[in-house]
Amino acid sequence: MESGQVDEIQDLIRGEKEEAERSFESHRFDARLFERIRKTREGRSAAWLFFLRKPGPTLAVSVLVLALVGSLLFRVFPSSPLQQTVRALSAVLTEAGDGRRITGQSHLDQRIAGAEYTEFGWALKGVLYACERQALGDVSITDALSRVFLTKASLAAPSQEGENASSPRMESPKLRSGEDFQMFFSGFLKKFEEV
Amino acid sequence: MISWPEEHPALRIQAGREINEVTRAAAEKEALFRGILENRKTVFWICLGYARDFVEAEELAQEVFFRAWTKIDSLRDPKRHREWLFRVARNTCLDQEKQRRFRRFIQGGSLEYARDERTPETRAIYRDELRLLKDAVRALPRKLKETFILRGYGGLSYREIAAILEIKEGTVMSRLSEAREKIKSRMRGRTHGG
């Protein structure tokens, strides 16, 4: 190869490098590079928190944490057997509404007959007895409850009141409104706690 | 520059042996990287050989040093950091070239299309001859191209090139000669052919 040709190539490359060198600033180059490295370092250190930037995982983690904390608190501060029973009774009665719909609701029967309600069932019968002053025998709890409510809580429509005027149930004091029923219900629970 | 852990008063107070060792390792790494960074110009020249223009060359050089920083732990012999760095540079440029080829394939473009991507300012400074040279270098087979760029643009010695490419010095010389021959022949053909 002729040396002149090689020189020509070298000259071209030299010219290109001179042009390029005019635009190259070492300080700017270093600053850009270190900025990128710094960002990458920060990104790495916070990488484990990356999932928190997405709402789905954040919500899931929050629910999990709340459930764990709730469960822990429940274990650390367990409620007394009485409180548990009252809570269970409230749940059943709340579900049953005003008490007239208790009979025939098999799922309530199942809940009451469940192992955790065994003690509750006996206590409830005691309360019913205290209310009614009569033995309940082998009557199911739902039937017993229904009997109490039907005698105590006459929440029938006004048109039906006349028809029921001579009914033996009217011997018991009537509960004419939802408010009355609430009062009766509170009294019932209070009595239950006493028993 | 780097302040060594035992020279730093705050570190001397709280220093357990482990803290010192960790800090020393980080400081050594930083010092090594700063040493590597001294070669920024040479890396920039090598990248210029692969790139279309100096803007792209600078981006490539940034990528080279960033990769060097992330892979610095793989550098076994710090004394041979130049060789290691230029190997990183060569690999980065080859990767970039592959990506560019892939993009061109996807977009259905050509070399001319790629050249037209340059800014008017960059385009203006490119003389016709230089453009011919760039095209000729780009058209070289990979082995010839990398040897030519390391020598012609990077200005590396035959020994360094041989170490980087893991070939004999004699092979470097023969490849260079062949590369120049091909470049000249292509440039001459283009000039005469219009």
Question: How would you briefly describe this protein structure?
Answer:
The complex is a heterodimer of chains A (195) and B (194). Chain A has 195 residues and is mostly helical.
SS strand fraction of chain A:
under 5%
Percent of residues in β-strands of chain B: under 5%
**Tally of DSSP β-strands of chain B:** 0
Distance between the termini of chain B: 55 Å
Largest sheet of chain A: none
The secondary-structure class of chain A comes to: mainly alpha
Q: Roughly how much helix do the residues of chain B carry, as a percent range?
A: over 70%
Intertermini distance of chain A? 116 Å
Task: Give, in order, the helices and strands of chain B.
Answer: HHHHHHHHHHH
- Percent helix of chain A, as a range, is over 70%
Supply Rg of chain B: 21 Å
Largest sheet of chain B: none
- Overall CATH architecture of the largest domain in chain B: Orthogonal Bundle
Shape of chain A: rod-shaped
Mean pLDDT of chain A: 66
User: How would you spell out the order of helices and strands of chain A?
Assistant: HHHHHHHHH
Can you put this structure into words, describing what you see?
The complex is a heterodimer of chains A (195) and B (194). With 195 residues, chain A is mainly alpha-helical. Helices cover 70% and strands 0% of the residues of chain A. Chain A folds into 3 domains: 1-45, no CATH class; 50-78; 81-194, no CATH class. Chain A is built from 9 helices and no strands. In chain A, helix 6 runs parallel beside helix 7. The N and C termini of chain A lie far apart (116 Å). The model of chain A is unreliable at 114-118 and 154-175 (pLDDT under 50). In chain B, helix 3 (40-50) runs parallel beside helix 5 (81-107), helix 5 packs across helix 10 (158-165) and helix 10 packs across helix 11. Chain B has 194 residues and is mainly α. Chain B is built from 11 helices and no strands. Classes of the chains: A mainly alpha (195), B mainly alpha (194). Chains A and B meet through helix 1 and helix 2 of A and helix 3, helix 4, helix 8 and helix 11 of B.
